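A reminder from the course coordinator: this example appears on the midterm review sheet, so study it carefully.

Given structure:
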């Protein structure tokens, strides 16, 4: 037993020496040799909220929520071949969020294969960590994001992710992403039809720079003058309904972002989006409940000048309106302020929302909610 302990300690010491001998390029990034490297990171979003009429007895309720807990691992095997792996809290547990094999020669043509974000509108390409407002998911979401919000098992994806392939790149100021995915894969999809997803964006001023085909809803002025318009679309045959009465899903979104740094250091940001979803089925009670109709939101923010403290205040307002083909309309107004300490890596948020809109697009309870949120990322 003692000999085994000595051997084990020797192996552990050798492994530690091997790791520490590799030059550290940056925080969390370790170079293995001139070509290969591995990078590690993490992100946390947590909040405290208080809503009227949300307690079991009908009174005001309070919720402490760990919204996201993510671990990131990325690396490079050769100059053009890379990988990315990420986890998050799912259904109260932790699981695989992303697992991507990446071929990135750069420029106009790159290929990702595995589990990843399906090309969609800006708020879904942001993910929760790169949004302008705390509550950006108050309009109907595409199938790979909507499914989880309805408490299903992720048969159409999870957190906007799905298994498939995406080809993406840019030509001058035009950026694109086209993908094919499993999509809705329950029994209703008898033909095993895939989901097709696409996003095309044009940068009229400075070109946005993000990892892959991802987006952000604010750069806090560091990207200069931004004016980008984009259209995204998704389609899946047999992607809805029941086994006896299957149907298709078609959806598109038009989104825009304007950001302008001012001479005094302040920054103005305006973001907006219009969505139209169509569900084609005669099924009376489909297993997978998707929004049918149109929706829009608009947000505006003002990042104040440096006041000498560790961060800068960014008050904002957001209005959401959901108009389903059947059922009642819903809307929601969010008034909030970000306290931006280190961009998307460290910020605090305080917001007040009033209304009845939610990510499913269906009319929810009309509530007033106060939320304090904290976001950390490295």
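Designed residues:
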């Amino acid at each position: 037993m003692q000999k085994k302990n000595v051997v084990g300690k020797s192996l552990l010491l050798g492994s530690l020496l091997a790791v520490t001998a590799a030059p550290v390029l940056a925080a969390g990034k370790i170079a293995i040799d001139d070509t290969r490297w591995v990078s590690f990171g993490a992100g946390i979003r947590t909040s405290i909220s208080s809503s009227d009429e949300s307690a079991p007895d009908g009174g005001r309720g309070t919720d402490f929520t760990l919204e996201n807990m993510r671990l990131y691992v990325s690396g490079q095997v050769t100059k053009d071949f890379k990988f990315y792996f990420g986890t998050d809290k799912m259904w109260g547990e932790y699981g695989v969020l992303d697992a991507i094999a990446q071929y990135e020669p750069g420029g106009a043509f790159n290929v990702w294969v595995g589990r990843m974000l399906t090309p969609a509108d800006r708020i879904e390409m942001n993910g929760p960590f790169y949004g302008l407002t705390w509550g950006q998911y108050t309009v109907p979401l595409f199938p790979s994001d909507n499914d989880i919000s309805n408490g299903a098992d992720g048969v159409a994806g999870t957190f906007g992710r799905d298994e498939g392939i995406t080809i993406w790149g840019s030509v001058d100021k035009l950026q694109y992403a086209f993908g094919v995915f499993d999509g809705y894969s329950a029994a209703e999809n008898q033909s095993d039809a895939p989901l097709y997803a696409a996003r095309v964006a044009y940068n009229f001023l400075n070109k946005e720079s993000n990892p892959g085909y991802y987006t952000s809803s604010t750069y806090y002025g560091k990207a200069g003058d931004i004016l980008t318009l984009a259209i995204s679309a998704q389609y899946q045959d047999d992607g809805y309904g029941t086994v006896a009465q299957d149907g298709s899903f078609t959806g598109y979104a038009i989104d825009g972002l304007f950001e302008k740094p001012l001479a005094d250091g302040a920054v103005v940001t305006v973001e907006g989006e219009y969505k139209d979803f169509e569900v084609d089925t005669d099924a009376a009670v489909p297993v997978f409940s998707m929004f049918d109709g149109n929706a829009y939101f608009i947000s505006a923010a003002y990042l104040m000048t440096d006041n000498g403290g560790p961060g800068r205040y960014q008050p904002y307002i957001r209005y959401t309106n959901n108009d389903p083909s059947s059922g009642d309309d819903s809307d929601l107004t969010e008034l909030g302020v970000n306290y931006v300490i280190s961009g998307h890596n460290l910020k605090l948020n305080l917001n007040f929302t009033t209304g009845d809109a939610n990510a499913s697009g269906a009319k929810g309870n009309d509530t007033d909610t106060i939320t304090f949120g904290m976001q950390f990322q490295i």
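Residues 23-377 form a domain with the Porin fold (CATH 2.40.160.10). The chain has a mean pLDDT of 88.
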